[in-house]
Amino acid sequence: MVKNSMKMFLGEYQPNITEGNRIALPKKLREQIVGEEIILSKGFEKCVFLYDREDWAQEWQKQAVNPITDSKTRELKRYVFSGAVDASIDEQGRFVIPQSLKSYAVLDKEVVIIGAGDHMELWDSALWTEHLKKISQDLVSGELGS
């Protein structure tokens, strides 16, 4: 396990959802996690964010500086925290995806876990393929990165 160093979640992996809504977290990603717990939360574009517990705390500490009087701040906090859950990684490297997040991200048996730098994302395989095509088209047309 990594301790006190910058994590970089990389790659694309295709684990399956097994009985009991279990997903095996790939070893290369597991090696970046401190401890045996991750935080799962609603992501954007119908995916689930996966954060190392330590990174989650640091990421959302940044939000503490935003005033509670700001409506966008309140809405973002409601969106993210209301759907967030702790998940334990078992001895076989698996975690359980709650039904609420499974439904939110329209996850079936075929899923993709991607490294997204400071966090991971869990996608339905078909939705990820579609979204990746859109990203590629937007990059080519100049809509992203300008």
Short description:
By secondary structure, this protein is α+β, with helices and mostly antiparallel strands. It has 5 helices and 9 strands, in the order βββαββααββαββα.
What does this structure look like?
The protein is globular and about 45 Å long. The protein contains five helices and nine strands, in the order E-E-E-H-E-E-H-H-E-E-H-E-E-H. Strand 4 and strand 5 form a beta hairpin. It has helices spanning about 25-30, 55-60, 70-80, 100-105, 125-140; strands spanning about 10-15, 15-20, 20-25, 35-40, 50, 85-90, 95, 110-115, 120-125. It is α+β, with helices and mostly antiparallel strands. The protein has a single domain, classed as Transcriptional regulator MraZ domain (Chemotaxis protein chec, 3-Layer(aba) Sandwich), CATH 3.40.1550. Helices cover about 35% and strands about 25% of the residues.
Please state the average pLDDT score: 90
Q: What is the CATH class?
A: Alpha Beta
| Structural Rg | 16 Å
Strand order of the largest sheet: 1-8-9-5-4-6
Helix content: 25-40%
- What separation lies between the terminal Cα atoms? 37 Å
Structural class: alpha+beta
CATH topology, what is it called? Chemotaxis protein chec
* Topology as a string of helices (H) and strands (E): EEEHEEHHEEHEEH
Helix count from the secondary structure assignment: 5
Give the CATH architecture: 3-Layer(aba) Sandwich
Dominant shape: globular
Q: How many domains would you count in the coordinates?
A: 1
Low-confidence stretches: none
Which superfamily, in CATH terms, is the homologous superfamily? Answer: Transcriptional regulator MraZ domain
The number of distinct β-strands equals: 9
Name the beta content range: 15-25%
Please outline the major beta sheet: 6 strands, antiparallel
